[in-house]
Amino acid sequence: MTRARAVKRPPIHMIEDEADAITSLAMSVEDRLPQVAELLLDEIGRAKTYTKAKIPVDVVTMNATVEFVDEASGADRTVEIVYPRDADISAGKISILTPIGAGLIGLRAGQSILWPDRDGKERWLRIISVTQPQTAA
Predict the structure, then answer these.
(1) 90 to 64, 86, 95: CA distances (angstroms)
(2) Local structure of 72: helix, strand or coil
(3) pTM summary value
(4) 61 to each of 5, 12, 66, 110, 130, how far by Cα in Å?
(5) How many angstroms separate the CA atoms of 19 and 40, rounded?
(6) CB neighbours of 131 closer than 8 A, spacing ≥ 6?
(7) Which DSSP category does 9 fall into?
(8) Are 40 and 19 in contact (CB under 8 A)?
(9) Sign of dihedral through CA atoms 136, 21, 48, 39?
(10) What is the dihedral of CA 30, 33, 35, 36, to 10 degrees?
(11) 59 and 129 Cβ atoms separated by less than 8 Å
């Protein structure tokens, strides 16, 4: 058992439609990205789901902008969590199919999670703030 699994993970919250889309996406990359696919499917499996209208505003959802701290390095980053087709690291848009994207989705401001990075090292990620995307009126 890895240390991340031994530590109790915080509750997570997801929009029903996004959970379905991310499940399909994770299953489609299981052969290519087995670690990320497994982590995403595990998180979706334990998530409390809501309709888009009912999701708390401080939850990291798709296309939300999230400020977080990597407790290991002390680095404070602000990124937007996006689907792979919209990813652009130079614009701060990271794919849900990255370890960071998979780790942040569903968390609320103030929560922390022990999560593996690309190299398999575990690090604490702490959510500072979440800004939901602006919707057209």
Answers:
(1) 17, 12, 12
(2) coil
(3) 0.87
(4) 23, 11, 9, 15, 9
(5) 10
(6) 64, 65, 66
(7) P
(8) no
(9) negative
(10) -90
(11) no
- Residue-wise pLDDT for 17-33, tens only, equals 999 999 999 999 999 99
Nearest one of 99, 81, 100 to 21, comparing CA atoms: 81
What is the structure's pLDDT at 104? Answer: 94
pLDDT of residue 58: 96
Is the Cβ–Cβ distance between 59 and 127 less than 8 Å?
Answer: no
Q: Tokens representing 46?
A: 């334990």
Tell how strand 65-70 and strand 122-131 pair up. Answer: antiparallel
Residue 45's pLDDT is 93
Q: Residue 55 carries which DSSP code?
A: S
Whether the Cβ atoms of residue 94 and residue 68 lie closer than 8 Å to each other? no
Taking the CA atoms of residue 16, residue 109, residue 4 and residue 49 in that order, the dihedral angle to the nearest 10 degrees is: -10
Instruction: With H, G, I as helix, E, B as strand and everything else as coil, classify residue 27.
Output: helix
Which amino acid is it at 27?
M
Q: Residue 119's pLDDT is what?
A: 78
CB 113 within 8 A of CB 10: yes
pLDDT of residue 72: 82
Q: Look at residue 35 and give its three-state secondary structure.
A: helix
